[in-house]
Design brief:
about 190 residues, alpha/beta, Rossmann fold, 5-stranded parallel beta sheet, two-stranded antiparallel sheet, about 40% helix
Length: about 190
C-alpha cells in the first residue's frame, strides 16, 4: 500500500518525531511504500493568500509550491497524520495545509447548492496519531476537534468505506520515559495492524 505520512511539529527532537519514525518503521516492516511530508522542515506556508481564497470555489490553487503536496496526495492510498494536539485541536500549520492542499478540484468539487463531490476515493485509510497535554476526558468534553476534523471531515472526501485509526498519548506534559516507550510500542502495534 502507498502510505503518505504527514508530520507536523516544529521541534526536530520532539516526541512526535519519535512517533513519526515509529510509524514509518512499522509501515516499512509491513512492506508498504511510504512518503513523508514534514510541514515544518519543508517550510510549508499555511497562509492562504487573498487571490487564492477569491478563486477557491472555482478552481484548484495555482501556487506552484503546492504542486508537490498535491502530487503526493494523489499518489496515496492511505494517509497517517502525526501531530501534537494544541488547544484541543490541530496545529495551525496542519490546518493551513488542509485549507490549501485539500482544495477545490483536488480533494472535492463543488456542485449546485454547494454540494461536495469527493475526489479522494483512492484513499482507503486515514489515521491520526497525536499527543495531548490534557487528560482524555477533557478532550472528550471539548469534542475532540482535531480528531473530528481528520476522521470525519477529511475522511468524507475519501473512499466510501475508508478505515480510520486514532491513537493519542494523553497527559503528555506529565509523561514518563515508561509511558512514552509504551505508547511507541502501541503505535507500532496498531499501525502494523492498520
Amino acid at each position: 500500500m502507498r502510505v503518505l505520512v504527514v508530520y507536523c511539529h516544529p521541534v526536530p527532537e520532539s516526541f512526535c518525531a519519535a512517533i513519526r519514525d515509529t510509524v514509518i518503521e512499522a509501515l516499512r516492516a509491513r512492506g508498504d511504500e511510504t512518503r513523508l511530508i514534514d510541514l515544518y522542515a519543508e517550510r510549508f506556508d499555511p497562509v492562504m493568500p487573498a487571490d487564492e481564497r477569491r478563486s477557491y470555489n472555482q478552481k484548484a490553487p495555482a501556487d506552484p509550491n503546492l504542486a508537490p503536496h498535491i502530487e503526493r496526495l494523489k499518489w496515496a492510498e492511505a494517509i497517517l497524520f502525526v501531530y501534537p494536539t494544541w488547544w484541543y485541536g490541530l496545529p495551525a500549520m496542519l490546518k493551513g495545509w488542509f485549507d490549501r492542499v485539500w482544495a477545490t478540484d483536488i480533494a472535492f468539487t463543488l456542485g449546485k447548492g454547494g454540494m461536495i463531490t469527493p475526489l479522494m476515493r483512492h484513499i482507503r485509510k486515514v489515521g491520526a496519531i497525536t499527543t495531548c497535554g490534557a487528560p482524555w476526558w477533557l478532550l472528550f468534553l471539548m469534542g475532540h476537534p482535531g480528531r473530528k476534523t481528520i476522521l470525519r471531515g477529511i475522511r468524507a472526501n475519501c473512499a466510501k468505506r475508508c478505515k480510520t485509526l486514532f491513537v493519542a498519548h494523553y497527559l503528555m506534559d506529565t509523561s514518563t520515559p515508561e509511558s512514552r516507550a509504551a505508547f511507541l510500542e502501541k503505535v507500532r502495534r496498531m499501525v502494523g495492524a492498520f
